């Protein structure tokens, strides 16, 4: 090793000064200073990620995983050879029968690859040549809270950092005026009682809290406490900040505490955010044809479409990790109607985001992920009728797609059995997906760790393998 | 990188000094080797074990010997680690990502040369009290250790901080509040004695207990919600009150521990000792639909094990849930044996005895009372007893009463023929435009658009005999979705309330209370009882729904009035069928009937009495069977007006009064020991994969349980605070040190296992730990000892040279300086502003929070629609703020508070732009700035100079220098001019917050001072304690 104690000390001192300064450098990125570990580990394919989380678990066999052969099995009981004693939630474990409910929706082939997709998502189907569709995702949890926590943090229980926090910690921020990790949420129109979200999903766990996602709010200030109190204008605020800085500077001279210097810098960044964030969320100068592309909801703040447009604007400003959470995919009953509402919310805007990034050259270095926390059952929860059915939670397989930087285009990965119940080929565990996402951003997931309670903690626990089959 | 720093500090002159295994070698082996060559047999590589000396000296699988003491050239360990990084055989291997530094390699080599001696892990060895180092002119034990070490480094302590700084530092550390102006006015003749007296005053303050509790709540993962998906409310503040009180009484730490871990098992446990066990019920409880309760019962226990071991022992036992510990000598068997202590709580694992949606405490619980409440309970109990004896007395007369009634019996029965008579309405309509079409059978069918919510209005004449109950029939119809009774797509409906009003002939209208509701079928979680408002539910109510195997059938529900409506000419019944809980779940076709039978006779089925009863009455008295006699007695007692019936109802009333009062008392979740459950090692930590059976025991690497301790939680608690336990006292001392100095003596205050940092001052840590035990676990005493030291009281001024030598100030050549915790930042601002309401304890409060704080991410549970309090709740200390785990108070999170979902024993300390925005713009701080400005104007003198100097002094405890004063006065003048031009701006600024601005003050001036006060509250030295 090349470090001498002096270099180490030097690195430490620089660390003290750099700590959080303008959030310009992630803590782990500082490890480069002592040469031990550095990120990225290799040339990244993606500079940033837009993760479109579909909370509640979208039904794979109604959207992405066609099973026309199920029509013949309609209303017949799910065979035990398929179920194999699989654990069920107590919402359906007491059901007397498990009648197969074929999807009501038609699938047709799209694009050069002939990817079969549902009529529910015509716009996403329109960009199928950009998509890497995974039909063989699987997970460990069967209830929402642990499952979504698992996707986001690699653990079903609370307390671990979210994927965006890991990226902020490992790679740091790419810009001086905005946070490294931004989160936006929207309610779905498909189901009234959407599954809730939790702070921990974008929390920093045991990582320092400045790596936590900053949630843009749908009412009031987009970033908490961004606006000056009424009666205080921008020039007055500047003047007040100058006084704060002058007095802090004096204390810095007197006490020499580097944290004081950092605080001076953070107040300056706060001031810059007071301009950069309103500028970011002000979409009035977007041309009409762009707004039309995202659909009619785009002008309603807090909708998925509006958030997709903001995601593009954040990507343009080099925010490292942008995450949307759209609620309302938990369709235990009345699925056909409910899923239509969800697709109305998300289909057009998702496709628009992909197209919009592409036409700006941003898709080349932006990774997009679209998916939920688990899949749904082929059998109907509650009564099956010609026009109605519901589906319970199903962790053993689900579909998810990626697009953009570093992933294969127009590609389908993995396969499930006739009932979309078990994976027959190329399963991808949540840890594998996260390892692959980190890889695309230039990080070896086994190297991105943080010492906590005597352990080297990782996003992927002690598991996770890079899925080479989906990397371009 | 952490470890490099330690090496630097720990090895001032490594080459010259003999290697100490624990200080120098263990950190290297533990971090870089034990993962593959340590305790976990399943992950061991090459059959090599480096954690045990004898093992390391045996040939490994390769035949080579890792350690040959005294001969580094023969030791394979050395041969492999000094290989070039690119070599295939280098250790640690490239892919571990943990290369050794040159310094580390040198240490290993020197260690082997010197004989490769091992030591047990330092924290697992009982602390040994060392002689105090002799340092000329230094008395205080802490200072003797610190100075001795500094001298070795060629350093010395800084001069003492000025009196005001010492005062502010110790006040913020011990009470979380700044010193008062009167304290600060008395700084003359500052001496140890005077400082000591001030420390005593702080320790005696009730705010001391609050400050201590603040930290304890993080450990205990305290919150006001159940966590997980729905995250509805719970009530654990009585436990929080217990903690505050315990600290204020200076309960010894051993007793503090025993009561929280096992207060319920102390013989003749007092109520407060049981309340203390709430510590281990503060974990989250999952009520998500579809969960398997047992899986989550196991998680509750896992949480208790992790929390208890982290809080008291600084161990990460959670690692052993799936495999033997990688670094510490803790096995899965140790983990599950520890687990067994917590496995006997009578709990299901999910929400129990409460509602997932509308909140409440899950069993087991205990009520908490004040002396007044105890008295009231006794009175109500006496009334109940009196009513009982009246009933007993009259029961003796029952045969005579029945005999007197017999002649009229037939007549009575004749009157009770029909239970339910359909009501003929004068008006039927929907509140939301649904067309309700009358059907030939007297029912009404809903048609047209199905609204999100609806209320069916149904007015009818009060029937001639009055009314005691109502029947709601929900009927299927082919026109409805799926041909069921409901209008939702799955045929379901959800009734949220059934309101009964009576409008008397004189026009007066009243809402009547329902006594009970019964249905022929209820969906799980949507029971008919939800429809009754019994006053227990806050906010949103539940509903009655009928999804399930038979949802497409006719359904009936009856609602019985608390008091029947007496016959009255001209009175009207106004019935309201409410469907307001779940969108679109309206009833499709319904019919309403009423009954006037005595409430006990009304039956859902419509049969007032059984044919058997009829037969019994027709049978001559002498020929009746015992069963027939019993039936008649029961019927008579319940339905025929008589003195016993009156006594029965008086008793019922008294019982209700008692229960209502008891139910309204606060309760708290507590530990309880139910029947002992078998405990098994769980494969991969999964609830349904039991392996070997284990029983309650403490980890084998630590000393055994005391001989006289029972083998249960109480024994565990005693073992934790047994002087033989090497961890407990060290952990508490180390964290206390962290609170006062910014870092623990071992920096890894969260973990004292093998991966812990070797302490910077190991002898000091051990001396303090033994002193803590020697003084009878005296928490106040130990804190006084530490804050009296010169090390604590020195100036925090740092030079570049010192910063370079010791950036984190581990050696303490200067005083500690760091940012205040989030709660203290806010509490200090409220105090300086004169706004703080210093009330101690009680239920959580709701200060200002951003709009939609609970609603933007959830539509579940009862913690939604956050509305700030309008009175003192806005100005209480921050740690009383209501804590919803999935959407915790945002400002606290910004200032590094954990979410409280799991035990957290260490907070990060960040410095971010979001914190700046909060301090500048959040209404709390804007209102506080105005509060400070008002004080500046009313108490600070008459000129801007005087007033600003006063404000600065309040905010910082220090006098302002001329230069800074000039800067602030200039700024003030400029803003005064700006506000004078735009007086509306000053009004707008002053209108922030609930309190009105002082009207006696000129608003333009006050606004300008408010901005200057805001500058003051944002200063680095204000949010920092130095």
Instruction: Please give the domain count of chain A.
Output: 2
Assign the CATH topology of the largest domain in chain A. Alkaline Phosphatase, subunit A
- Specify the overall morphology of chain B: globular
Binned strand content of chain A: 15-25%
Write a structural description:
The complex is a heterodimer of chains A (472) and B (1026). In chain A, 60% of the residues are buried. In chain A, helix 10 (304-316) runs parallel beside helix 11 (335-359). Chain A starts with a helix and ends in a 14-residue tail after the last strand. Chain A has 472 residues and is of the alpha/beta class. Chain A is built from twelve helices and 17 strands. The longest helix of chain A is centred in the C-terminal third of the chain and has 25 residues, at 335-359. Chain A has two domains: 43-219 and 301-470, Alkaline Phosphatase, subunit A, CATH 3.40.720.10; 226-289. Chain B is of the alpha+beta class. Among the domains of chain B are: 2-120, no CATH class; 371-414 and 615-665, no CATH class; 417-608, Jelly Rolls (Sandwich), CATH 2.60.120; 921-1025, no CATH class. Helix content of chain B is 39%, strand content 9%. Chain B contains 36 helices and 20 strands. In chain B, the strands form six sheets. In chain B, strands 2, 4, 5, 7, 11, 13 and 15 form a seven-stranded antiparallel beta sheet that branches. A five-stranded antiparallel beta sheet of chain B has the order 3-6-14-9-10, with no helix packed on it. A two-stranded antiparallel ribbon of chain B has the order 1-16. In chain B, strand 9 and strand 10 form a beta hairpin. The longest helix of chain B has 26 residues, at 371-396. The two termini of chain B are 27 Å apart. Chains A and B meet through helix 1, helix 7, helix 8 and strand 16 of A and helix 1, helix 6, helix 27, strand 19 and helix 29 of B.
């Amino acid at each position: 090793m090349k470090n001498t104690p002096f270099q180490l000390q030097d690195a430490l001192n620089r660390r003290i000064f750099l700590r959080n300064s303008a959030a310009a450098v992630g803590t782990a990125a500082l490890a480069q200073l002592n040469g031990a570990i550095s990120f990225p580990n290799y040339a990244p394919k993606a500079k940033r990620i837009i993760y479109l989380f579909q909370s509640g678990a979208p039904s794979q066999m109604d959207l992405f995983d066609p099973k026309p052969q199920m029509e013949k099995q309609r209303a017949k009981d799910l065979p035990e050879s398929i179920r194999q004693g699989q654990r069920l939630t107590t919402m359906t474990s007491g059901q007397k029968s498990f009648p197969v409910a074929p999807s009501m929706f038609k699938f047709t082939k799209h694009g050069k690859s002939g990817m079969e997709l549902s009529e529910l998502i015509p716009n996403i189907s329109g960009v199928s040549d950009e998509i890497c569709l995974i039909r063989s995702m699987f997970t460990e949890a069967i209830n929402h809270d642990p499952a979504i926590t698992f996707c986001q943090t690699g653990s079903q229980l609370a307390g671990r950092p979210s994927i965006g926090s890991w990226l902020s910690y490992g790679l740091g921020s790419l810009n001086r005026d905005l946070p490294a990790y931004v989160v936006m949420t929207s309610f779905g129109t498909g189901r009234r009682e959407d599954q809730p979200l939790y702070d921990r999903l974008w929390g920093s766990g045991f990582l320092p809290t400045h790596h936590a996602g900053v949630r843009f709010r749908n009412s009031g200030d987009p970033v908490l406490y961004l606006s000056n109190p009424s009666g205080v204008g921008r020039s007055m605020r500047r003047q007040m900040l100058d006084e704060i800085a002058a007095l802090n500077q004096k204390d810095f001279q007197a006490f020499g505490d580097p944290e004081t210097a950092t605080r001076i810098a953070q107040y300056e960044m706060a001031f810059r955010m007071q301009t950069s964030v309103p500028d970011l969320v002000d979409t009035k100068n977007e041309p009409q044809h762009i707004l039309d592309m995202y659909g009619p909801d785009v002008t309603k703040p807090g909708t998925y479409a509006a958030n997709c447009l903001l995601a593009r604007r954040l990507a343009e400003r080099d925010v490292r990790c942008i995450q949307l959470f759209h609620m309302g995919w938990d369709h235990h009953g009345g699925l056909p109607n409910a899923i239509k509402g969800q697709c109305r919310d998300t289909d057009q805007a998702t496709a628009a985001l992909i197209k919009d990034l592409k036409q700006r050259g941003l898709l080349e270095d932006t990774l997009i992920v679209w998916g939920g926390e688990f899949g749904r059952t082929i059998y109907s929860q509650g009564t099956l009728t010609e026009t109605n059915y519901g589906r319970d939670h199903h962790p053993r397989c689900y579909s998810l797609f990626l697009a953009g930087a570093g992933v294969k285009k127009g590609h389908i990965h993995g396969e499930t059995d006739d009932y979309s119940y078990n994976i027959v080929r190329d399963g991808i565990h949540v840890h594998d997906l996260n390892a692959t996402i980190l890889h695309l951003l230039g990080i070896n997931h086994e190297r991105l760790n943080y010492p906590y309670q005597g352990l080297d903690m990782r996003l992927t626990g002690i598991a996770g393998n890079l899925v080479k089959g989906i990397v371009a | 990188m952490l470890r490099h720093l330690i090496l630097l500090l720990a090895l001032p002159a490594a080459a010259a000094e003999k290697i100490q295994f624990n200080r120098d070698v263990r950190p290297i082996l533990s971090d870089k080797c034990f993962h593959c060559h340590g305790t976990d047999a399943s992950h061991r590589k090459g059959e090599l074990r480096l954690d045990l000396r004898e093992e390391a000296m045996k040939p490994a699988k390769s035949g080579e010997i890792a350690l040959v003491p005294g001969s580094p050239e023969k030791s394979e360990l050395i041969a492999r680690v000094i290989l070039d990084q690119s070599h295939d055989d280098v250790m640690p291997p490239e892919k571990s990502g943990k290369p050794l530094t040159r310094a580390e390699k040198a240490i290993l080599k020197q260690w082997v040369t010197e004989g490769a001696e091992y030591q047990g892990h330092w924290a697992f060895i009982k602390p040994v009290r060392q002689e105090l180092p002799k340092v000329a002119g230094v008395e205080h034990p802490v200072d003797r250790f610190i100075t001795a070490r500094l001298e070795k480094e060629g350093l010395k302590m800084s001069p003492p901080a000025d009196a005001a700084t010492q005062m502010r530092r110790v006040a913020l550390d011990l009470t979380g509040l700044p010193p008062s102006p009167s304290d600060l006015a008395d700084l003359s003749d500052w001496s140890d004695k005077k400082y000591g007296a001030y420390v005593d005053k702080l320790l005696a303050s009730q705010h001391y207990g609050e400050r201590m509790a603040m930290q304890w709540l993080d450990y205990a993962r305290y919150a006001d919600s159940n966590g997980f998906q729905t995250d509805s409310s719970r009530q654990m503040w009585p436990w929080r009150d217990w903690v505050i009180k315990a600290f204020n009484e200076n309960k010894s730490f051993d007793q503090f521990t025993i009561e929280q871990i096992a207060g319920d098992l102390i013989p003749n446990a007092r109520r407060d000792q049981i309340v203390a066990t709430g510590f281990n019920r503060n974990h989250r409880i999952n009520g998500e639909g579809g969960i398997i309760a047992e899986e989550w019962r196991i998680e509750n226990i896992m949480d208790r094990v992790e929390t208890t071991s982290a809080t008291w022992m600084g161990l990460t036992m959670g690692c052993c849930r799936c495999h033997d510990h990688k670094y510490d000598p803790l096995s899965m068997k140790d983990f599950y044996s520890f687990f067994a202590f917590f496995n006997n709580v009578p709990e299901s694992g999910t929400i129990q005895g409460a509602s997932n949606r509308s909140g409440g405490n899950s069993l087991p619980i205990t009520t908490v009372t004040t002396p007044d409440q105890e008295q009231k309970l006794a009175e109500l109990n006496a009334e109940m007893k009196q009513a009982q004896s009246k009933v007993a007395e009259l029961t003796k007369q029952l045969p005579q009463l029945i005999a007197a009634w017999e002649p009229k019996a037939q007549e009575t029965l004749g009157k009770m023929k029909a239970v339910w008579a359909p009501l003929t309405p004068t008006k039927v309509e929907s509140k939301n435009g649904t067309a309700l079409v009358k059907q030939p059978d007297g029912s009404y069918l809903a048609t047209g658009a199905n609204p999100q919510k609806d209320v069916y209005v149904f007015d009818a004449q009060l029937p001639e005999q009055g009314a005691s109950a109502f029947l709601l029939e929900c009927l299927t119809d082919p026109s409805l979705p799926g041909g069921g009774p409901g209008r939702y797509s799955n045929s379901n409906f959800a009734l949220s309330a059934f309101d009964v009003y009576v409008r008397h002939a004189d026009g007066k209208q009243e809402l009547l209370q329902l006594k009970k509701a019964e249905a022929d079928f209820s969906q799980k979680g949507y029971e008919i009882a939800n429809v009754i408002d019994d006053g227990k539910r806050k906010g949103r109510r539940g509903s009655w729904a009928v999804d399930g195997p038979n949802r497409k059938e006719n359904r009936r529900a009856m609602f019985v009035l608390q008091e029947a409506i007496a016959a009255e000419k001209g009175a009207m019944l106004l019935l309201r069928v409410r469907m307001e809980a779940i969108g679109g779940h309206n009833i499709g076709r319904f019919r309403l009937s009423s009954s006037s039978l005595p409430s006990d006779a009304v039956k859902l089925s419509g049969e007032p009495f059984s044919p058997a009863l009829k037969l019994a009455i027709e049978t001559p008295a002498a020929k009746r069977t015992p069963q027939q006699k019993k039936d008649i007695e029961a019927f008579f007692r319940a339905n025929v007006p008589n003195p016993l019936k009156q006594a029965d109802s008086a008793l019922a009333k008294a019982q209700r009064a008692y229960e209502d009062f008891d139910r309204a008392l606060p309760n708290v979740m507590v530990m309880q020991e139910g029947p002992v459950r078998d405990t098994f090692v769980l494969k991969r930590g999964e609830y349904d994969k039991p392996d070997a059976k284990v029983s309650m025991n403490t980890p084998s690497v630590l000393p055994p349980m005391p001989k006289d301790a029972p083998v249960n939680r109480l024994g565990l608690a005693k073992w934790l605070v047994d002087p033989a336990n090497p961890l407990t006292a060290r952990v508490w001392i180390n964290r206390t040190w962290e609170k006062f100095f910014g870092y623990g003596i071992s920096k890894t205050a969260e973990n004292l296992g093998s991966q812990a940092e070797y302490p910077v001052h190991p002898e000091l840590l051990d001396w303090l730990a033994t002193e803590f035990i020697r003084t009878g676990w005296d928490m106040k005493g130990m804190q006084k000892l530490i804050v009296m030291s010169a090390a604590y009281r020195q100036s925090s001024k740092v030079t570049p040279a010192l910063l370079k030598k010791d950036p984190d100030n581990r050696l303490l050549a200067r005083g500690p300086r760091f940012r205040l915790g989030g709660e203290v930042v806010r509490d200090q601002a409220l105090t300086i502003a004169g706004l703080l309401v210093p009330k101690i304890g009680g239920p959580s409060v709701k200060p200002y929070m951003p709009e939609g704080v609970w609603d933007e991410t959830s539509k579940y549970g009862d913690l939604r629609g956050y509305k700030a309090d309008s009175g003192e709740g806005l100005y209480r200390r921050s740690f009383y703020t209501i804590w919803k785990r999935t959407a915790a108070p945002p400002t606290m999170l910004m200032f590094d508070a954990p979410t409280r979902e799991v035990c957290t024993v260490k907070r990060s300390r960040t410095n971010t732009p979001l914190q700046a925005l909060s301090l500048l713009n959040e209404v709390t701080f804007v209102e506080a700035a105005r509060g400070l400005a008002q004080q500046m104007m009313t108490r600070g003198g008459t000129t801007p100079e005087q007033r600003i100097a006063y404000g600065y002094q309040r905010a910082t405890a220090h006098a302002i220098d001329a230069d800074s004063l000039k800067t602030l006065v200039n700024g003030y003048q400029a803003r005064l001019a700006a506000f004078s031009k735009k007086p509306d701006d000053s009004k707008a600024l002053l209108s922030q917050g609930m309190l009105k601005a002082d009207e006696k003050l000129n608003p333009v001036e006050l606004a300008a001072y408010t901005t200057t006060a805001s500058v003051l509250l944002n200063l680095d030295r204000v949010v920092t304690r130095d």
